[in-house]
Amino acid sequence: MKRKVGLFLLLVMVAVTLGATVVVSLAMYRLVADKQAQEIRSLEASLTDRFAIFEALLRSQHGRIKAHMEKVLPEIAAELASLGRDPASLSAAELNALTEKYDVEHIYFIDRSHKVFQTNLPGDMNLVFPESPFTKFLDTVYENGKVMSDGIDMSSLTGTLRTYSYYGPKDKNFIVETSTEVRQSLSDGDFGWMGKYFFQDIFTDAVRSNEYVKDVDIYLVTPSGAWSLLHVGRKLAPDLVDRVATTGREEVTDADGRHVTIYSRYVPVGGTGKDDPLSHKLVIRQITYDTGLAREAVIKVFLSSMAVLALMLPIVFWIASRLLQRQILDPLFNLRGEAGAIAEGDLEHSIANTDRRDEIGHLARSFDAMRSAVRNTIVDLKETNLSIERFVPRAFLAMIGKPSIVSVSLGDNMRQEMTVLFSDIRNFTTLSEQMTPDENFAFINTYLERMGPVIRDHNGFIDKYIGDAIMALFENADDALRASLAMFETLERFNEERRAAGLGPVGIGVGLNTGSLMMGTIGEKHRMDGTVISDAVNLASRVESLTKVYRVGILISQNTYDHLADPKAYDIRPIDIVVVKGKTRPVTLFEVFSRNDPAERAAKARTRDHLLSGVEALIRLDTKTARRHFEDSLALLPGDPAATSLLKSCD
Known about the structure:
By secondary structure, the protein is of the alpha+beta class. It folds into four domains: 31-308, PAS domain (Beta-Lactamase, 2-Layer Sandwich), CATH 3.30.450.20; 314-387, HAMP domain in histidine kinase (Helicase, Ruva Protein, domain 3); 392-563, 2-Layer Sandwich (Alpha-Beta Plaits); 565-651, no CATH class. Helix content is 52%, strand content 21%. It contains 19 helices and 19 strands. It has helices spanning 2-83, 92-101, 133-139, 182-188, 192-202, 205-209, 238-247, 292-312, 315-343, 359-391, 394-399, 428-433, 437-457, 477-500, 535-550, 558-563, 598-619, 623-636, 641-649; strands at residues 106-111, 116-119, 147-154, 161-167, 174-181, 213-222, 225-228, 235-236, 249-253, 259-266, 282-290, 413-425, 460-466, 469-474, 508-524, 527-533, 554-557, 572-578, 587-592. Strands 12, 13, 14, 15, 16, 17, 18 and 19 form an eight-stranded mixed β-sheet that branches. It has a six-stranded antiparallel β-sheet with strand order 8-7-6-11-10-9, sandwiched between helices. Helix 1 runs antiparallel to helix 8 (292-312) and helix 4 (182-188) packs across helix 5 (192-202). The longest helix has 82 residues, at 2-83. The chain starts with a helix and ends with a helix.
């Protein structure tokens, strides 16, 4: 009964304290929020007062620029008329000379179709203004004989504040337009320090003086968008501009609710009529304010109240909760965290409380035993997978669409377009007869240990070893050819080591062929093997065997030659057209002579174009042209076996 009464009193105290905390927190939030709203309104009024100063400065400067343009624009038109020059014929140098002479920044010439057909600003050349109130204004300027202004505007190209003046000469179908950047004009004019103060300090000091004000800005709305007067290139979204223009005020809160941005319409305080540079323009103020203060106040009040609540709780309840926490909850939480660590793969994470003699200790010891068993199983699996990958390449599994060896089934297969590489050691039978079986195995493994990384480094993988021979697969023909050349470079270093050990050098032959093949598993349910089956594989083997006949290091088929990105980037030439063993159709063979000595390589390179042209003619059955090219090749390299063999093919 005492426990129930104590629990009831505890619940009442908690409920009253929490209720009071909520009421105080809400009151604090409302108080701070009202204070912030009042400060934002004060900032808006301050921005209005500051912009009013700049507005007066703009009117003064605009009037000065307009007076200057009313003087020089007719003079520019008169000078062109006196010279009899069409504005379209003016060069860039002549246009720049006009701007310097008459002290204008940019000059434009606009025809009746509202197109800029001449200007000293290349980015605006051939600019066509779409139908709008601005083009209607332009229509009133043509042949008017007066200098007119459409007020202050923003350049859509540079995003800077500019003032534009227009003049339509009598009896002319074009308008002369000039533009002046207001910021630079203000800096160079009578109000230089005021202009710099506006752009640099008059608004940004609101951010510096109040830590909760994060950004202020002023935007001028033009036909090309709402552009910032303070930050060149900053622009408002069109839909936001429409809402502000309609309602006069828009509040936008960011995703986390901490900052609110207020956009409000500014009404010019002076000047009316069309001649005023700002009276018909929409100006939008922006204030970004950090509203997190109200939230922070609520959190502080809530935390303070919770601290008071904790102090009011009975000491006995506090001691009981601490004992419960320490003896039961903390160990259980530790076990939960340790179980999570094990689930994430951390099998070295230590298990606490294994020395306890109660149920918690028994559970901890069970966790520890489970962790050890899982760790041993995973280590065994990793070692097994690494061992399997030595027999079944990971690249082979990827080709047939299998994530691991476990998911492979008998008969899994996939068709691929690949380049097959066969390599073989020359006269290996003779070499092996001079070695014991142990020496044979050591020699082959030493040789393959050098060649395997070369193939993998060029994006290939070894499908199988056939004694001393290697069969490898490549997705890209260029990778296969580069791997073949690298194998010969590796062989040179291997032979240098053999010579140093008093052993004779070895030679190899490499054959390449490209074609469609089937990759998959064959065998039966208790013994499977991964392999490739295709006529392209057989042809690659035949091509490699012909390297001995032609006494060359690398031979490639026509299929591989056609799949190279740029065959002429390599030292390749045709060597013969043959019908290989087991085939009925002739195959064009190409010799790769990059590894020949420099003199022989240069001589063979001179014959390449004749041999290629001869083979192309022979394929077209134009034996006369083919014979001529082969004879020309023989003239360049007398006794050349390639030209001799191909010349026989003409018969």
